Amino acid sequence: MTLLPRVLSGLYVIFSLLFLTACGGSDKTEDATAVAVSASTASLDIGFPERFSTISATVRDADGELLRNATVQFSTTLGSFSATEAITRTTAETGRGGSNDAGNGVAAVRLFPGQSAGSATVTVYVNGVQTTTTVTIAGTAVEPERPVPASISIAASERAIFVAGVGQMESSTITVRLLTSTGGAAKDAPAGINNVRVSFVTQPNGGELLLGTQSSGQLVQNTKTLDVATTNGVATLTLNSGQLPGVVELKAEALDTTGASYSPAIQTTASVLSIASGPAHSIVFSYPIEAGIQNMGNGTYRREGGLLVTDRYGNPVADGTVINLGVIDSVLLSNRAPQINYGFGSTVTDGNASTTANSTILTDLSNALFQSAVITRNNTNRFIEAQDRVLIFNAQAEDKSRFVAALPTQASSVTVNKNYLNTDTELEYLVGASLLGMQVAGVDPAKEGLVSGQAVTKDGAASFYLTYPANQDTISTGCVSPNLDTRHSPRGSAQVFVVAEASGSSATTIDDRACFNYISPAVISSGITSISGDTVLSLEIRDQGAVRLPFLGFDAGISYGASNNGNLQVEVGHCLATASLRTDLYGQCELQINTSGGTSGDTATITLGVSGGTPLAISVTVP
């Protein structure tokens, strides 16, 4: 009797569990196969941020039964799932139908309007299944009024600009911000009111300009002070450089809703930028003392040179400033030393030429040779021709360099390619060309290889190279006195000048130190290293490229042995061809050496040396 009730009781429990399962007992997200979504209201208004629409998601399993405890993901394109924060994604779980949940198999969230109007697309997602509904959000967001400014800041987009007219950056954007006590943007002024005043405190006074937009929308400019209006607490101006370098310091002041200063004033002062590097005003040549000449291996040498280019205040010019280069190695006519003898007449070295402003004529009434001056190059007579260079050494920079415009038709004047800008007298000039083979090229940091006839600055400096033939017919041209160099006719016509121009109206320099120099140290040699009496010693001097060096001077010294019982006397004479201690046209010297006195065994040493080179020692012994 006791066993049957127990069996019946167990069967009752089993049937109860089966009944519950049949009535939708699943409670896992993975069992979800369908979801439906609805909104309690189809529209919201951003003017009522506390109102909301309830978004409900009903989830079912494969049998169509409501699914409890499933996690549903909600997202929206507009609005927020929070009344106080911008939340566009959230999750919720489906309920069991109790009084504290959204309902059996239902998950719900609240959608608030947020600050943007439009159509909000709300998407619900569960176990790979999703669906959407839309809620219209209407109205216009009310922007909270920003407080008045508590501070002001100034910033410049470029902290270094260049003076106007040099082809570099000439302006900087100036940003002025009105800030609240918490660092946010302060409110703008009412319509028609300018609420920022910007003025120069320090400036070069070279014509700098401030440009900005006023409340009326008009773009205005001023050289001292400018009132402008902010947008979202920010005013943007442009500062343009003038013609002078220097520091720019600005003061910015906030203005109230009437355009007047606050009391106390809200302002700041800042040194915002520097205007640097005016136009090129000075060009200085320099040459390395050591290792400045390279043997190109094809009978030519290349000599390095440098340029320092500054404005009138000593600032390096802007990077990328182009320096035009030219070279003269043959002088066709000149009124400055050395005097050149043309066979029928000599140049007059009185420096009495003249120019006239707005005229293309260079006049030299004393030196009536413009039509007839002639030199010999390549075994041919060469007269002044069109495009030969005309240099005036003591003229203003803008008048120093010109080119012959046409064959001279007047004996005492020459027409050049453009007007002279000044009226000057007592001028020293020359007319010349490159006829001995010298070439000039420079370095452009932006290009590979050398650039013919120009160099480009970087940090105010530029490099250039002179290339010239290296043989005994040309070596040392321009390095020795024209009175000594007899290789080029007429004597004195072989002179070397390099011309550098940064601008036709501001910077031109003429340099006379760039000659056809040799590679030092020179080496003096002889086939004889010991003598015993009067001798004519055969010498030659070559440089490190084995080129014989004509017209090169050397020194001679004499020292005697410890016992000079016979009073040996040694006298070093001159090179027979030059009557001096200087090589001849061929870089050679027949050196006369005389001895007197002395007894057998007396000794002396003759030391022959070239500056920087290894001396040649010749021993003298009385037999």
Describe this entry's structure for a reader:
This protein has 623 residues and is mostly beta strands. The protein folds into 4 domains: 29-138, Immunoglobulin-like; 151-276, Immunoglobulins (Immunoglobulin-like, Sandwich); 283-511, no CATH class; 523-622, Immunoglobulin-like (Sandwich), CATH 2.60.40. Helix content is 3%, strand content 43%. The chain is built from 1 helix and 46 strands. The strands form 11 sheets. Strands 19, 20, 21, 33, 34 and 36 form a 6-stranded antiparallel beta sheet that branches. A hairpin with a 3-residue loop joins strand 37 and strand 38 (507-511). The radius of gyration is 48 Å and the shape is elongated. The N and C termini lie far apart (163 Å).
Query: How much helix is in the residues?
Result: under 10%
Strand content: 35-45%
- List low-pLDDT spans: 1-24
Shape: elongated
User: Which structural class should the secondary elements be placed in?
Assistant: mainly beta
Question: Main β-sheet, in a few words?
Answer: 6 strands, antiparallel
Q: Given the structure, what is the number of helices?
A: 1
Number of strands: 46
Number of structural units classed as domains: 4
Head-to-tail CA distance between termini: 163 Å
Domain Big-1: 35-140
InterPro entries: Big_1_dom, Ig-like_fold, Invasin/intimin_cell_adhesion
Protein name: Big-1 domain-containing protein
Organism: Rheinheimera mesophila
